[in-house]
Amino acid sequence: MDRCSLLNTSLPFFAGILVLSLLFSGCSPQEEDPEELILSIPSDPISLDPLFSTDLSSRTLGKFLYPFLFQKTPDGKQSYQLVETYELKGFGEIRSLRLKIRSHFLSNGETLKAQQIKESLDRLKDTPGPRRSQYSFLKEIQVFGDREIELKITGGLRQAVDSLSLPSAAIVCCKTQGAAVLEPESFQTLEKKNVDSSPKPGQYLLKEWKKNNYVLLEKNPYANSELPKKIRLRILASASTGVFLFSKGKMDLMRLPNFLLKNPNVHSENLTFRKGGGVQYIAIQAKEPCFDLPFRRALNAAVNPELVIQKLLEGNADPTIGPVPPGSIGTTNRGNFLSKNRENLQWRNHSILLAKEYLKKSVCYPKVLEREIDFRMRGDEENSANGLALAGFLKELGLKIKIRPMEKAVLYKENAEGKGDLTLLFWYADLPGAWNFIDPLFSGKDKGNGGNRAHYENHELEILFSKARASDSLNLESETSKALQILLQEVPWIYLWSPYETFLISEKAKRYSNLVDYL
Questions:
Q1: Which residues have CB under 8 Å from 164's CB, separation 6+?
Q2: Pairing state of beta strands 94-101 and 138-144?
Q3: Which of 465, 478, 497, 500 is 20 to 30 A from 365 (CA-CA)?
Q4: For residues 361 and 344, what is the distance between their CA atoms, to the nearest angstrom?
């Protein structure tokens, strides 16, 4: 081999060594701090303002920096963070939601006041942007002393409480002295060196942000929680690099893609799992007349999610119940629901013979066998592997499947335009509970980028959605059961699985049992 060839061959190797060297040179002695934990995020946050935080990194930071009025438990029940008690009063179109605020300490030792919460909620209803219409139910906000606040609202209590539990409704605080407007944490606030000029309400304070490198957080000295004193969120686009850093003791907690589970640096004692946060599915284009009910049932009968879970996902997923993770329905309710809907679940037998019988009843059979069906997915390694396996089931049915790996932005843009026949997608719910998978994923008003990527609409479901949105009940078991019954009959998706979220966790990080909840 000549010298030029040797140099060309070696360049990628030396480039990799250089990248890792820079990573370690940036670690510096601070990363040896026994009170600091290192976590991984995939990119720089787009924004630390909850109103504009749409990416995973921004939302992760938001959980550390801001508290919420309400929260949801993993099974979708209501719980409280800043709210101690609430009371709904009045009749008619506009009613009063009176909130009593519990004691919550800011970073200067003072307690968070109702007026400061009002300033944050005013941003929700007054700031131009995509969130403004979502919080149009907030008509007026009044303060009564330091610990009581009254919200004048339209619509149902459930919609208000759910909306105030979303990431966009995080409580931003507090104004700097003499400031006319409330300024959320940002890269600019660090540059102005006003990090400590106003008290902060969250579990952590933003201390340092080196673009494309890391974000450093320091614990609120008055926060009453079992969390580390410092957290360094290292920005790593490559999960493989994170695994390497973990093996060298330079990473304490990170999300782990399934395709890295067999990496030699990954050991079972360092793995932890979280169930039920999202679902992977194939949206079937509802605008296509050939994709009628027999055709959709044929696709579901042909695909065997359990086999893919076993062979490709290392067993780290659960088959969904229709479009929802099984854990999002209580154990008792789940058993009752399944026993009452056996007829609607015949296609779950995953029989190619049954699938072909369904297909023969389709309006476009047999011409549909001659048509090239456009099967779209994100072009990353994991989605491509899953998509290839799923396409294999459909080809066994006799369909001509054209696999189209795509960039995420293009995939979502064209899906919103109604392009594509079948689309492999993932939905991570903002709030736990089955209803947060059903609405907006099947809402007629949320087609395309709103969440309903199958462009599906059902009159009976729309009635249920309207009823639920206007309801004052926080218990939606009846509506959930009826909606699932419709969706199991209509199968607007190929229902697949709810993957476990897998994390690498160090012995040091295991001391903080609730830290995984922030990722």
A1: 68, 69, 70
A2: unpaired
A3: 497
A4: 17
